[in-house]
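Repro:
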Amino acid sequence: VQLVESGGGSVQAGGSLRISCVASGYTLPMNMGWFRRLPGQEREGVASIRPGATTTACASSVRGRFSISRDNAKNTLYLQINSLKSEDTALYYCTTGPSEYNYWGQGTQVTVS
């Protein structure tokens, strides 16, 4: 399984960004999620989504501003980030796995100024 994130960049506070993750190398949709690593901190969960895309969850710190979605036909996971804050500056990773999160991408950097 390979995961490739894209769409990160430098954004002004209050702005929006959508990051993507293209997955390959598997046959059935699996649970997927976004994590992030803030500077000097441990990686933390941000949002998750079930294979059918009917069930999603977001961390309380980002709820109302972040939205996770997926397009199984395109094997792509998305994270819409609105009302960006400086504390959202982090390396964002997508992840997937049949039961646990076994597979990880390299990450895409989001910097809010």
